[in-house]
Amino acid sequence: MAFAEGMGLRERKKFQTAMRIYRTAVALFDEKGFDAVSVQEIADASEVSKMTVFNYFGTKEDLVFKPMEEHFHDPARAVREREPGESAVAAVRRQFLEMVEARDPSVGLHYEPFARRIRSVIMATPVLRERAYLSAEKGARELADLLTEETGDRTLALIAATTLTSARQALVEEHHLRIDAGESVDEVAADAAERAERAFALVAGGLSGYAVRPA
């Protein structure tokens, strides 16, 4: 739910309402546990009706995932939008490095503690961990389908997609684990690009020349 410049007043108010509900829900889930918090409690704390919560988010699980779910599609988007002459590995690497530079919350690098509260809620809730796993699998499958369409080889496409998404997720997890252990965001970010370069170089060694977009 990124804020869009040029929003009209009505759209801005809807966005602000959605963000208030979202932040309230995550705070309550983190404090009491996902299963212990009702949608009605979230609605009351957000000063909206229960129906309004469902209008914005659809399900209780969506109160955690909807604003972040698009990021599971980031690798496929990077490959879909890559430049002529750019390989799939290079595209995913470039996108990831741009997110590191921007301290994007989706790669575990953000100064605001709220971003880590979301992860805390997911890790503490089996149903949310399962959804995160399935969403990641869906993202990898989307990338595999895209590569299959381009190359015609489904087996190699699935291997490439799984390798790329797994490497990316390993880097993100490392960011989270180091910050959870007490390192600052700046300390982790200081060598994040170098670690990402090494990780993607390892992947590129096995996928060298694979899925290079024709010039």
What does this structure look like?
This protein has helices spanning 9-32, 39-46, 50-57, 62-65, 74-80, 88-101, 114-123, 126-151, 154-180, 185-190, 192-207. It has 11 helices and no strands. It starts with 8 loop residues before the first helix and ends in an 8-residue tail after the last helix. It has 215 residues and is an all-alpha fold. Helix content is 70%, strand content 0%.
Number of helices: 11
Largest sheet at a glance?
Answer: none
Low-confidence stretches: none
Strands, count: 0
Distance between the termini: 35 Å
- Computed over alpha carbons, the radius of gyration is 19 Å
Structural class: mainly alpha
Keywords: DNA-binding, Transcription, Transcription regulation
Pfam family, one: TetR_N
Protein name: Helix-turn-helix domain-containing protein
Domain HTH tetR-type: 15-75
Short description:
By secondary structure, the chain is mainly α.
Topology:
Layout: H1 9-32, H2 39-46, H3 50-57, H4 62-65, H5 74-80, H6 88-101, H7 114-123, H8 126-151, H9 154-180, H10 185-190, H11 192-207
What distinguishing features does this structure have?
single chain, 215 residues, mainly alpha, HTH_TetR
